[in-house]
């Protein structure tokens, strides 16, 4: 007996589909349904249906509002700086041509470092009194004493400081993706613009960036999602402190789930977070990427 | 060659200088980690800090590797990553092949579903998985953690392998079928060898996803199946602020994968840019 192509395809897809259904979709459904219950933190403890009460508690809690805002700020800092820096480096690589190949490889190395290692490493670089960053800044005369900037201990700048290892870790990704995109920009378009006397900034903003639009969209969406989910890199540096100034949603949900022992509330927060992520990603994909659509 | 390359000498000199500055800034954090790992424990937290060790020593490595649980955690990390890579390839390769070759509606729905998986916050899957693993009797086991890691690497593997399969001309398979092979034989003996480079890229990424993962490991393991990222994180509480030991273990954990990257960089660049550039 011979299977039709359609059946054959189904047989090949089924194992992966069943796996994702059992270990992603089903847990996720349970997580979302937990948001409607008051749950004892003990395993097998009592559950009570409470409707939307957990959602109401979440939305009215300053901790949740603050964490949501910090998640947005953190994501914007990470994505904006990674994009600016990553694009600049990609343009330098493109301008230097094939002889920069070795350096492209070297530039890539942080991508392989575990986020938890990157977080600890940067905590070590930034730490008060024996951190090397302030010491180097002092030596070149930018600071007059090493305790002038408390990178991770000053609540007003800590959210920016914890973003630094994330930027260090994945700017290479943006650079690699944009560099690959730049290779596909037709040379004669740029040559023609040069002959017409177009200056570099105009060339960049009017010609190169619009041509790279789909590539930029994918890079920003991928990095935006990951930055919004950042967990270990922040946990390891500050554990959400000082004074909750680096408690983003993923940390707040984790803490509500484990330390505060309120899985119902944590699930409600996580559900809101999930819905917002899906909505933003969907809008981003359709608005920026416009798959197949021509740039007007 | 591309129109963006500049031939003007002064511009090139400035750009090379800028690139050198960027590379020094970018390379310094990890070089400093390596240097610190060779310092004495006191040197590591000296005020003011020095860049170079005053005395080079392997003490931090000896101390870190002889701590209880460190070597088992390294073994667990390797075992979990290898197992999870095997799961991702076994499940992802046939699925990706079917999706690109037959373009059925079920395949299209599946691609969207796999993409959505990428956006889910880890904790939303990880927390309920604790209960699932307990029911299956695989709490705190390497296989349980490997399954959890596969939820991350499987969608990634399908995404990457789909791009590689797309590049295989369909004529190749048709020729095999004319020669009397059935679809499965054509897939195994004709298509798979052609995409072997792609399989390598996918395997590397699946391995790295598991190797560097933290939150699933934190939620799903306690003692027996604990992986190295958790042990590294514990250096700050369990043993006080042992920066020397932490940097040594971090170096042991990171240097092999960094060297692997440098050796296989062509493949890795292909994997990182493939999906994104094709749009």
UniProtKB/TrEMBL annotation, chain A:
Gene Ontology biological-process entries? transmembrane transport
Which is one Gene Ontology cellular component term of this protein?
plasma membrane
Q: Which domain of life is it from?
A: Bacteria
- Pfam families per the record? BPD_transp_1
- CDD domains membership: TM_PBP2 (cd06261)
Membrane topology note: Multi-pass membrane protein
What keywords are annotated for this sequence in UniProt?
Answer: Cell membrane, Membrane, Transmembrane, Transmembrane helix, Transport
Task: Report the residue ranges that make up the ABC transmembrane type-1 domain in this protein.
Answer: 68-284
Subcellular locations according to the entry: Cell membrane
InterPro entries listed in its UniProt record: MetI-like, MetI-like_sf
What SUPFAM superfamilies is this protein classified in? MetI-like (SSF161098)
Q: Which residues cross the membrane?
A: 7-29, 72-94, 106-125, 157-182, 203-222, 265-289
Name the family: Belongs to the binding-protein-dependent transport system permease family.
**What is this protein called in UniProt?**
Carbohydrate ABC transporter membrane protein 1 (CUT1 family)
Which species is this UniProt entry from? Kribbella rubisoli
UniProtKB/TrEMBL annotation, chain B:
Q: Which Pfam family, giving just one, matches this sequence?
A: BPD_transp_1
What GO biological process terms are annotated to this protein in UniProt? transmembrane transport
| Stored InterPro entries | BP-dep_ABC_trans_perm (IPR050901), MetI-like (IPR000515), MetI-like_sf (IPR035906)
Recite the UniProt keywords alphabetically.
Cell membrane, Membrane, Transmembrane, Transmembrane helix, Transport
Where does it sit, as one GO cellular component term?
Answer: plasma membrane
Q: Where are the transmembrane segments?
A: 12-35, 74-97, 109-130, 142-165, 186-211, 243-264
Name its cellular compartments: Cell membrane
Residue ranges occupied by any ABC transmembrane type-1 domain in the UniProt entry: 74-264
Its main subcellular localisation, reduced to a broad class, is: membrane
Question: SUPFAM superfamilies annotated for this entry?
Answer: MetI-like (SSF161098)
The way it spans or sits in the membrane comes to: Multi-pass membrane protein
UniProt keyword Transmembrane, yes or no:
yes
Indicate whether Oxidoreductase appears among the record's keywords: no
Q: Which family does it belong to?
A: Belongs to the binding-protein-dependent transport system permease family.
Q: What is this protein called?
A: Carbohydrate ABC transporter membrane protein 2 (CUT1 family)
Please name the source species.
Kribbella rubisoli
């Amino acid at each position: 007996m011979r299977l039709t192509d359609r059946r054959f395809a189904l047989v090949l897809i089924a194992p992966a589909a069943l796996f994702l259904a059992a270990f992603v979709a089903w847990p996720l459904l349970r997580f979302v349904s937990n948001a409607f219950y008051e749950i004892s933190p003990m395993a097998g403890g009592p559950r009570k249906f409470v409707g939307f009460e957990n959602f109401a508690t979440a939305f009215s809690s300053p901790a949740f509002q603050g964490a949501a805002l910090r998640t947005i700020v953190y994501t914007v800092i990470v994505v904006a700086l990674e994009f600016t820096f990553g694009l600049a480096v990609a343009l330098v690589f493109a301008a230097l041509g094939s002889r920069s190949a070795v350096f492209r490889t070297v530039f890539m190395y942080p991508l392989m470092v575990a986020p938890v290692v990157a977080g600890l490493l940067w905590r070590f670089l930034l730490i008060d009194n024996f951190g090397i960053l302030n010491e180097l800044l002092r030596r070149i005369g930018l600071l007059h004493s090493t305790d002038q900037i408390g990178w991770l201990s000053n609540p007003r700048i800590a959210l920016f400081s914890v973003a630094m290892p994330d930027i260090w870790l994945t700017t290479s990704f943006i650079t690699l993706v944009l560099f690959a995109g730049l290779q596909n920009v037709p040379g004669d378009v740029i040559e023609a613009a040069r002959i017409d006397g177009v200056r570099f900034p105009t060339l960049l903003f009017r010609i190169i960036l619009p041509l790279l639009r789909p590539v930029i969209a994918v890079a920003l969406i991928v990095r935006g999602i990951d930055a919004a989910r950042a967990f270990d890199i922040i946990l390891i540096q500050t554990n959400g402190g000082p004074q909750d100034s680096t408690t983003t949603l993923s940390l707040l949900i984790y803490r509500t789930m484990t330390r505060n022992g309120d899985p119902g509330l944590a699930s409600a927060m996580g559900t809101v977070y999930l819905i917002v992520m899906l909505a933003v990603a969907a809008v981003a994909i359709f608005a920026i990427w416009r798959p197949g659509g021509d740039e007007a | 060659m591309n129109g963006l390359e500049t031939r003007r000498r002064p511009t090139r000199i400035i750009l090379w200088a800028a690139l050198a500055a960027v590379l020094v800034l970018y390379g310094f954090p990890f070089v400093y980690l390596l240097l610190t790992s060779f310092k004495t424990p006191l040197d590591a937290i000296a005020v003011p800090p020095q860049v170079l060790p005053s005395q080079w020593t392997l003490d931090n490595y000896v101390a870190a590797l002889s701590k209880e649980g460190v070597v088992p955690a390294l073994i667990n990390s390797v075992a979990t990553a290898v197992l999870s890579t095997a799961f991702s390839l076994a499940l992802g390769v046939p699925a990706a092949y079917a999706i690109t070759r037959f373009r059925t509606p079920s395949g299209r729905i599946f691609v969207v579903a796999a993409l959505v998986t990428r956006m889910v916050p880890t904790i939303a899957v990880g927390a309920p998985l604790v209960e699932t693993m307990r029911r299956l009797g695989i709490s705190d086991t390497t296989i349980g953690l490997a399954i959890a890691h596969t939820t991350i690497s499987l969608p990634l593997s399908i995404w990457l392998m789909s791009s590689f399969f797309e590049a295989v001309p369909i004529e190749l398979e048709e020729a095999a079928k004319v020669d009397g092979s059935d679809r499965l034989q054509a897939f195994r003996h004709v298509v798979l060898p052609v995409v072997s480079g792609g399989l390598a890229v996918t395997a590397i990424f699946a391995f790295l996803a598991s190797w560097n993962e933290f939150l699933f490991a934190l939620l799903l393991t306690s003692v027996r199946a604990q992986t190295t990222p958790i042990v590294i994180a514990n250096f700050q509480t369990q043993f006080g602020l042992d920066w020397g030991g932490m940097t040594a273990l971090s170096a042991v954990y990171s240097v092999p994968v960094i060297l692997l990257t440098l050796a296989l960089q062509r493949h890795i660049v292909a994997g990182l840019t493939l999906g994104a550039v094709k749009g």
